[in-house]
Amino acid sequence: VAGENFDQSPLRRTFKSKVLAHYPQNIEWNPFDQDAVNMLCMPKGLSFRTQADNRDPQLHSFIITREDGSRTYGFVLTFYEEVTSKQICTAMQTLYQMHNAEQYSSVCASSSCSMDSLASSIDEGDATSLAKLQRYNSYDISRDTLYVSKCICLITPLPFMQACKKFLIQLYRAVTSQQPPPLPLESYIHNVLYEVPLPPPGRSLKFYGVYEPIICQRPGPNELPLSDYPLREVFELLGLENLVQVFTCVLLEMQILLYSQ
């Protein structure tokens, strides 16, 4: 089911996503909120790409805050996998045919021409825009490979950003590798969910991912709270002056709203 952005070409539209599977099915102290996790994993919805588009994996995080103030942290790796369903590929081509027909009609309408003299009356600018339209806003099922976005997500009681990032990247490598890892993927997922404990306050914990060991550290009671996010990215995103201004607002206990796409 597509969203409301029908003016966009089909490959730029977003579609409704859903949770395909989650493990364990439920935890008494941390019930799985399917709607919230689905929305936070794919805030813009499901998206499609072709071999011509950038399909590099992207990582982001989110926080779920409950009514009692407790928090759980989610770390999400979004990647693209090839669409193997012929039905979905055919539907995408149909969407493009409909979209290009509408765009073609609008170009004709803007040129104020009759159908009989269509070829001669479209001016050079309209012809150029139409050519670009057909070149970039097209999907040919016989020529193009269709990809769809998919997420793998870890939900944790503490924000172990770096450890979760490394585990998800290793898991993604295992999923996409030509040579599978020594053990089934379920073994590594079971290990991180059931056999890797939280490190005690003030201690470090080393556990094995899929390919390489992973270390996570937990601050002691007298240390600053855990902040496993790289400060370099904050400086790159906000810039020095904006960051100083935000920090000043924090010290002055002002209300701060960060808005981002």
Strand content: 15-25%
Radius of gyration: 24 Å
- SS element count, helices: 8
Largest sheet: number of strands, sense, barrel closure: 4 strands, antiparallel
Structural class: alpha+beta
- Poorly predicted parts: 117-122
User: Average pLDDT, to the nearest integer?
Assistant: 84
Our measurement of the CA-to-CA distance between the termini, rounded to an integer number of angstroms, reads 22 Å
What coarse outline follows from CA principal-axis ratios? Answer: globular
Q: How is the largest sheet built, in terms of strand order?
A: 1-4-3-2
Write structural notes for this entry.
Pfam families: DENN, uDENN. One of its GO terms (molecular function) is guanyl-nucleotide exchange factor activity. Keywords: Guanine-nucleotide releasing factor. The chain has 261 residues and is an alpha+beta fold. Among the domains are: 1-106 and 132-157, no CATH class; 230-260, no CATH class. The protein is 38% helix and 17% strand. The protein is built from 8 helices and 6 strands, in the order αβββαααβααββαα. A hairpin with a 5-residue loop joins strand 2 and strand 3. Helix 2 (86-111) runs antiparallel to helix 4 (124-136) and helix 7 packs across helix 8 (240-251). The longest helix is centred in the middle third of the chain and has 26 residues, at 86-111. It is globular, with a radius of gyration of 24 Å. It starts with 33 loop residues before the first helix and ends in a 10-residue tail after the last helix. The model is unreliable at 117-122 (pLDDT under 50).
